[in-house]
Design brief:
By secondary structure, the chain is α+β, with helices and mostly antiparallel strands. The protein is built from 16 helices and twelve strands. Belongs to the cytochrome P450 family.
């Protein structure tokens, strides 16, 4: 175990709002061991930015980690050549060109259909009625699991990410995760003989990726590709409706949807951390790590690091968010970042505000999670 100073947390309070605790860690013990998580947390932006790239020390290889046990060994749990090989195999499905030329028209068509059904209702929940189906429709297309339904996609994604954050070992959460991965495998089985063009299944098959790795990588795409866009869409809309002066800047073309999204994922990072395992003993900032130690790189904390952001707890779309690292900063930088940005900033946000005039909040929006964070409900109405 590392010799980092110990910080005790209340897991329920940390899930309800991790940011006050993370601020205390940055100030008092920026590298700290948390017994409740059995992990050493790295919380300052510069430390994360440097150490994430040191894969010889902070390795993604975690054969005993929750993600590997529950979802199979995907490319996110590999380093070096093994990671690069599978990342290159998946790239044709997620490249900026593929997103712009192939997926964007599909994103637009699916989102328009959802809005056509939603607009006459006059009220709803942005999470379940809009952000969830928009994100799921995009992910169904990208993965190639064309027989899966949006609510089914959302459910299996949620149950997998709950499983991957189940450091307390809740057996019910683990069982739901196993059921979700089994259902995904059933859907993959149906598509192996003829997957849709450009899909994650098709490009991996074309590259000769072994089937067990193909399956694990499809599950990886689902685990990050559903909850992050879903939570970022609903969360960014919530933030803008709570800051009408900033929404007005976008309507007046003084700011952009991309700036609103970039500030949101700095402020409330949908993917709050990335786990690593120490490959060899090393000392970082007077903390000595032992081989086998579990380390969490806290991207959510990096986004509120006071040395890079003035008033970091405030949502401000005019700020420079370039120091933020919500998608990571090293070789494991999110492979789906281009698809996520396109879906959210070019499709979901502008089309929503165009289609639903006088969009307004009608209640509170509860947030939850520290490893993955987002609103569970955003009640709204429109004219």
């Amino acid at each position: 175990m590392s010799n980092a100073p110990v910080t005790q947390i209340d897991p329920a309070a940390f899930a309800a709002d991790p940011y006050p605790t993370l601020a205390t860690m940055r100030r008092q013990a920026p590298i700290t061991y948390v017994p409740q998580l059995d992990a050493t947390l790295i919380t300052r932006r510069n430390d994360i930015h440097v150490q994430e790239k040191r894969i010889d020390v902070f390795s993604s290889l975690q054969p005993d980690g929750l993600m590997t046990k529950l979802m199979g060994e995907n490319m996110m749990r590999k380093d070096g050549d093994a990671h690069a090989l599978e990342r290159r195999a998946l790239f044709p499905a997620l490249s900026p060109r593929t997103v712009a030329d192939h997926w964007k028209p599909m994103f637009r068509a699916a989102t328009q259909k959802i809005l056509n059904d939603l607009a006459p209702k006059g009220a709803g929940d942005l999470v379940t009625d809009y952000a969830m189906p928009v994100s799921a429709a995009a992910l169904i297309a990208i993965t190639g699991l064309s027989q899966m339904q949006p609510r089914e996609m959302d459910r299996v994604s949620q149950h997998m990410i709950d499983g991957c954050a189940n450091y307390a070992g809740d057996p019910q959460i683990e069982a739901r995760c196993h059921a979700a991965t089994a259902l995904i495998d059933d859907h993959i089985d149906r598509m192996l003989a003829g997957p849709p063009a450009k899909s994650a299944i098709a490009v991996q098959q074309a590259a000769g990726v072994p089937e067990h790795s193909l399956r694990a990588n499809v599950k990886l795409v689902i685990s990050g590709g559903q909850n992050e866009p879903r939570d970022a869409i609903a969360g960014t809309v919530w933030a803008l409706l709570n800051h009408p002066d900033q929404l007005r800047r976008i309507h007046d073309q003084q700011s952009t949807w991309a700036e609103a999204f970039g500030e949101y994922v700095r402020w409330i990072s949908p993917i709050g951390m990335s786990p690593r395992v120490v490959a060899r003993a090393e000392t970082v900032s007077d903390v000595t790590f032992d081989a086998g130690d579990r380390v969490f790189l806290m991207f959510s904390s990096a986004g509120r690091d006071e040395t890079h952001f003035d008033a970091p707890d405030r949502y401000d779309i005019t700020r420079d968010t370039s120091p933020a690292i919500p998608f990571g900063a090293g070789p494991h930088f999110c492979a789906g970042a281009a698809a996520s940005r396109c879906l959210i900033t070019e499709i979901a946000l502008p089309m929503l505000f165009d289609a639903l005039p006088n969009l307004r909040l009608t209640g509170t929006a509860p947030f939850t999670g520290w490893a993955f964070r987002g609103p569970t409900s955003v009640p709204v109405a429109w004219s």
